[in-house]
Amino acid sequence: MTDVSTQSIVIDAPLARVAEVICDFGRYPEWVSAVQTVEIVEEYEDGYASQVRFVLDAGVLTDEYTLQYEYAEDLSRIEWRLVAPSRVMRAHDGSYDIVPGQGDSSVVKYTLSIELGISMIGMMKRKAEKVIMDTALKELKRRVEGLVGR
Question: What is the pLDDT of residue 2?
């Protein structure tokens, strides 16, 4: 059984802008430090990506994997799951839940559950998940807030 981790961050931008950045997978290599390449494998009829292939290089960890995405109609929830086991992961499920905050801000809750195909001590796995989530939320905040007003 895999553990589920959750973290939140406030981003000074409306929900629609946050969702726009999350859904713009082709630009991930510009702002997600570990992502080397992204390929949209399949799209839904509305143009949103349904399957996205990632090539990841986080120094000591490299991997290639494909995620299946689903979206709430108003994009307040974007969730994903691993299509097939990768070299490193057996399962990878996650979501972004975006709710309006004060003023034009949004609160983004990131939930992540990863089952590794490699051995790792539980404490080290939890620390790695925390670093992944901290980095992902900080990079998302920097990207979204850097684009506000453009």
Answer: 60
Mean pLDDT by 10 residues, the chain (150 residues): 83 96 96 94 97 88 93 97 91 96 96 78 60 85 82
Query: How far, in Å, CA of 30 to CA of 144, rounded?
Result: 12
Which two tokens mark 17? 């802008």
12, β-bridge pairs: none
Nearest to 63 by CA among 55, 71, 75, 73: 55
Query: Domain 5-147, what fold?
Result: Alpha-D-Glucose-1,6-Bisphosphate; Chain A, domain 4 (3.30.530)
Residue 26 DSSP one-character state: G
CA 106 – CA 141 distance, rounded (Å): 10
* Burial per residue of 82-109, b for 16 or more beta-carbon CB atoms within 10 angstroms, e otherwise: bbeebebbeebbbbbbbeebeeebbbbe
pTM value?
Answer: 0.88
Which of 148, 116, 146 has its CA nearest to residue 132?
116
Distances (CA, A) of 22 to 1, 48, 60, 79, 121: 28, 11, 25, 11, 31
